[in-house]
Amino acid sequence: MQGGIKTTKYVARAIGHEDGEVALIIGSVVGGPFGAVGGAAYGSVVGVVHGAKTGYNHPFSKESFTLKED
Questions:
Q1: In this predicted model, what pLDDT tens digit does every residue of 7-65 receive, in sequence order?
Q2: What is the reported pTM?
Q3: Which residues touch 67 (CB under 8 Å, ≥6 apart)?
Q4: Cβ 45 vs Cβ 8: under 8 Å
Q5: Which of 3, 42, 51, 59 is the 20 to 30 Å CA partner of 12?
Q6: How far is the C-alpha of 10 from the C-alpha of 56, rounded, in Å?
Q7: Orientation of helix 2-15 relative to helix 21-57, angle to 10°
Q8: pLDDT band at 1; cut points 50, 70, 90
Q9: CA atoms of 21 and 52, how far apart (whole Å)
Q10: DSSP string of the chain?
Q11: What is the pLDDT of residue 36?
């Protein structure tokens, strides 16, 4: 979800200004799907890597199922 929001604001900033209503609508139509797909792919990879690293040492622990910021 956060990838879609960031990409929407990026496109809106490139079009005009980030707070403009029309720029945000166009940014959400154009940039939102790209950000959502990219964010989902990134999150999947980060989640699998984190789960493999933590889950190997402590399987089925809370830490292996919780993604923490390092």
A1: 888 888 888 777 778 888 888 888 878 887 888 888 888 888 877 777 777 777 777 66
A2: 0.56
A3: 46, 47, 50
A4: no
A5: 42
A6: 38
A7: 150
A8: low
A9: 43
A10: -HHHHHHHHHHHHHHS-TT-HHHHHHHHHHHHHHHHHHHHHHHHHHHHHHHHHHHHHSTTSHHHH-----
A11: 79
Query: Residue 70: is its pLDDT beyond 60?
Result: no
Contact (CB, 8 A) for 18 and 57: no
pLDDT at residue number 16: 78
Q: Between 4 and 64, name the one with better pLDDT.
A: 4
Task: Please give the structure tokens belonging to residue 60.
Answer: 């089925």
Task: Please provide residue 24's backbone torsions phi and psi, each rounded to the nearest 5 degrees.
Answer: -70, -35
Which residue shows structure tokens 């830490």?
A: 63
Place of tokens 């959502």: 36
For residue 70 the two structure tokens come to: 């390092």
